[in-house]
Design goal:
The chain is an alpha+beta fold. It has one domain: PRC-barrel domain (SH3 type barrels, Roll), CATH 2.30.30. Strands 2-1-7-6 form a four-stranded mixed beta sheet, with no helix packed on it. Strands 3-4-5 form a three-stranded antiparallel beta sheet.
Length: 78
């Protein structure tokens, strides 16, 4: 799946069941692999503690992305 990262900012995200999750605000990039590893639903704050919380509670693994067209579709969590 080849998509420019700049296209993904602000895109709405839905589960494959149709539930709205939020909008893509930030991305975590694995520079060694050259790929996106996580999509964040909030922008990262300056605080280290808040960053940990957002990564844990307000982010999704990019490997769970099923498609990127007009919206981002995420595989439903089981």
């Amino acid at each position: 799946m080849g998509v420019k990262l700049s296209k993904l900012y602000g895109m709405e995200m839905f589960t494959d069941g149709g539930k709205f999750i939020g909008t893509a605000q930030e991305f975590v990039i694995n520079t060694e692999a050259g790929e996106v590893s996580r999509i964040l639903l909030e922008q990262l704050p300056a605080s280290k503690e808040k960053t940990k919380q957002i990564l844990k509670e307000k982010s999704l693994m990019y490997k769970n992305v099923k498609s990127v067209e007009d919206v981002i579709v995420i595989k439903k969590r089981e």
